[in-house]
Amino acid sequence: MFQIGQKAMALSFASSDPEQALEQPAGLQLFAEQEEVGWHAHQESQLVWVTQGCMSMETSRGRWLVPAGRMGWFPGREPHRGRVLRPASGISLYVRHDWLSYPTVFDGSELGRALLKALLQPAAGAVQARRLAALADEVRLAKALSVGLPLAGAPRLKRLCETLAHDPAKAPPLERAAAQVALSRRSFSRHFKLETGMSYGQWLQLARVHQSLVLLAEGVRVGDVALAVGYDSVSAFCQAFRQLMGLSPKRWQSGG
Predict the structure, then answer these.
(1) Total structural domains within the chain
(2) Which domain holds residue 234?
(3) Which residues form a coiled coil (predicted)?
């Protein structure tokens, strides 16, 4: 069962070894199949490696896709919820320290994947601590992928983002979006980029692909999905989808 917030294997080490002062895993779990998990929070930070399928993690800051072969980092104490868009399997690691202060998704390095696998094997606490320290370095050095859909922090912009994230087909043109939040076009563009890190148009394209994954996972036809998320043509949708996900919508829907 895929339970994003559950620590399925608690790891603890009792030793007088001074190296035990190093960080130890707070929990480690193999997950499989799918389950939607509602809003929750835990003290530990979470590193997820999805080996098969695709999952979505949402926080107050935005929504992040973790496709197969990628890793996701989510800081502790931050409310979040998870949804599997295709039956997923992989590994979740829980640690007590914040290796990064923000959520991110990245390509796991060969070393990072090997370290996660090694942590599944029984070993002395000092050995596990050194593995964990090396893995922390890999996470901190990883280059983020553009699969996160950030939400603005300013209340009016955040409400707009939340609405459009769930129904991007109803996205108004730039001028009308600015008017909805009582800003000039220029001020809206400036504030939107400051808040989300991208232009309104770039953000909308990402929001459309994010929402398309939900519909594709429900078995909706590719052509209908393209229209439902606001594309004028199937070809434009397929091009945008391939740029983000690395394969066509049809191939993704059939299991990649």
Answers:
(1) 2
(2) 151-253
(3) none
